[in-house]
Specification:
With about 350 residues, this protein is an alpha/beta fold. It is built from 12 helices and 13 strands.
Length: about 350
């Protein structure tokens, strides 16, 4: 039958019979959870078990966006109110080692939360470098506005997840920080020259190119390909992501249902694979859209299969920790009184 090169969401707190039948038939490589799928820890763990039971392959990747701040699917009262990425940059600017430790601690504690639920992939870190005048879709999700700071904190955050047996996804490769519009709603076009992109936007991804997973940016870079966003540009994926950045991990597209992409779902899917994505991602849980994507998807093979196997081989790498002690240390660093506020949920 083979494994379909896709990651799918589902519609609610448990699977419908139609979803269960579809997933058993299609055998997607992985799944992703959103706020609509989350109620209590017991419910989330049961849903994860349901999803994993639908597929025959072992070590099924189950993803979630748990960054902190606006982008966190697991929220109070059942999960801690983690801060947004910019907080670590602020600490880093005052005391580099404290900022890095803070970022590592948050990711390590998030890994504790996720591991208890059976979730093994977190769509973190955000390696985008915002510039003045860019859309705030990244905004406070970014660790800073300097590539070195973003890289340093991104590495610490990734290492925190990895030490807890949860895999990071570097995003949005090769950089979403200059986008003038929200790619959930429209297609960003970046006209910056290649030398500046290499010096700034691409640098954090190059420094973290050893990570196992990456998510593309639905962004056009006119200096490289003036017609196609990174997700569907073979030139961006080959020349920049694979060659210049040197990323040889598993490359997934950002959500195919975002309005930055044009064409039917079959066309979006085919274009993503043709450009060089290993796996496509669809998040909104719409079963009819997922059927169209599945019909246009490939089965994992070749380099894509090699990269996928490398991902699942890493799931066993979990280091023991004293969670209570780490939480006490983390709380001691959370000195911003506004940090516990619960802002509106946002997307990728």
């Amino acid at each position: 039958m083979g494994i379909t090169s896709a990651i799918f969401g589902c519609s609610g707190l448990s699977l419908t019979q139609d979803e269960r039948s579809f997933f058993k038939e299609v055998q997607p490589w992985g799944f992703i959870l959103f706020g609509r799928n989350v109620d209590t820890p017991q419910q989330v763990a049961a849903l994860v078990d349901e999803l994993k039971a639908c597929v025959a392959h072992d070590d099924v990747p189950v993803l979630i966006d748990q960054e902190g701040g606006r982008v966190r699917r697991l929220r109070p009262p059942h999960w801690p109110p983690y801060p947004a990425g910019e907080v670590f940059g602020q600490h880093y600017n005052e005391d580099k080692e404290r900022g890095l430790r803070f970022a590592w601690l948050q990711s390590r504690l998030m890994a504790c939360d996720l591991h208890k639920l059976g979730i093994n992939v977190d769509c973190l870190p955000v390696l985008d470098v915002p510039v003045k005048g860019s859309h705030d879709v990244i905004g406070d999700r970014a660790y800073g506005k300097e590539p070195v700071i973003v890289s340093d904190i991104g590495l610490a955050a990734s290492q925190g997840l990895l030490s807890g047996g949860v895999l990071p996804v570097i995003k949005h490769i090769p950089g979403h920080g200059r986008a003038g519009v929200d790619s959930h709603k429209d297609l960003p076009v970046v006209t910056t020259g290649i030398e500046e992109l290499e010096k700034s936007d691409f640098e954090p991804f190059k420094r973290l190119n050893q990570m196992p997973l990456a998510m593309t940016a639905h962004v056009v870079y006119t200096a490289i390909d003036d017609k196609n966003p990174a997700t569907t540009s073979s030139k961006v994926i080959k020349d920049i992501i694979r060659d210049y950045i040197g990323f040889d991990g598993l490359l997934m597209c950002d959500d195919l249902s975002m309005h930055a992409l044009k064409g039917s779902f079959e066309e979006r899917t085919a274009a993503s694979f043709e450009a060089g994505c290993d796996v496509v991602l669809h998040c909104n849980g719409n079963l009819e859209e997922m059927r169209l994507i599945a019909d246009a998807s490939t089965k994992l093979s070749g380099d894509s299969l090699r990269r996928a196997v490398h991902v699942t081989d890493l799931f066993a790498n979990m280091e023991a920790c004293n969670e209570e002690s780490l939480r006490d240390e983390f709380r001691s660093l959370c000195d911003d009184g506004t940090y516990g506020q619960d802002p509106t949920e946002a997307g990728h």
